[in-house]
Write a structure and sequence with these properties.
This protein is mainly beta. It has 2 domains: 63 residues, SH3 Domains (SH3 type barrels), CATH 2.30.30; 59 residues, SH3 Domains (SH3 type barrels), CATH 2.30.30.40. Helices cover 11% and strands 39% of the residues. A 5-stranded antiparallel sheet has the order 6-5-4-1-7, with no helix packed on it. It has a 5-stranded antiparallel sheet with strand order 13-12-11-8-14, with no helix packed on it. Strands 2-3 form a two-stranded antiparallel sheet. A hairpin with a 5-residue loop joins β5 and β6. The radius of gyration is 25 Å and the shape is elongated.
């Protein structure tokens, strides 16, 4: 008959903890993310939004956006935090409560002509300056044209004239 000795207790405890830790590490982490596709466009919900270097209030503020409805692209998620990229490729983390699902675009390049129809020869409806933010109304065919709204004007722009929609995106 073999007697149990106290010298084996530390060895047994060490083996037990190693097994337990291995089991815990093998368990999947339950995601708290949104489940929505990445990347995706959204807009800023508030007049001031802090862009942080990491996903939490303990991370320093790297930038403060001061423009409600500015379009941004969510490129990653961690719990209630979203990593975003703006039209100038600046990246950082914001809390999900600072983002809205409402779609917007920012006009790039030079002053653009909004058209009455999705055709380069269609009559102009309005001119929109570079850097202006407009609401994205629809991109009905997934083609090169989308309808945008800025103030009282609604018209068509080509996707290459703004930032805030994917090249083949269909939005109704």
């Amino acid at each position: 008959m073999h007697m149990f000795t106290f010298r084996r207790i530390p060895l047994l405890l060490a083996a037990f903890f190693m097994l337990a830790l291995g089991t815990v590490q093998a368990l999947p982490v339950q995601a708290q993310e949104s489940g929505l596709p990445l990347p995706r466009y959204v807009s800023l919900r508030a007049d001031q939004v802090n862009l942080r270097t990491g996903p939490g209030v303990q991370y320093p503020v790297d930038w403060v956006y001061q423009r409600r409805s500015l379009p941004v692209e969510i490129i990653a998620e961690y719990r209630t935090w979203r990593k975003i990229r703006d039209w100038q490729s600046t990246q950082g983390w914001v809390h999900q409560s600072m983002l809205a699902g409402k779609r917007a675009v920012i006009i790039t390049g030079k002053r653009r002509t909004m058209r009455g129809e999705p055709d380069a020869k269609a009559a102009p409806v309005a001119f929109i300056e570079s850097g202006a933010v407009a609401s994205l109304v629809e991109c009905p065919t997934g083609g090169p044209w989308c309808m945008v709204e800025s103030g009282v004007h609604k018209g068509w722009l080509r996707k290459v004239e703004f930032w805030g929609a994917y090249r083949d995106e269909l939005l109704k």
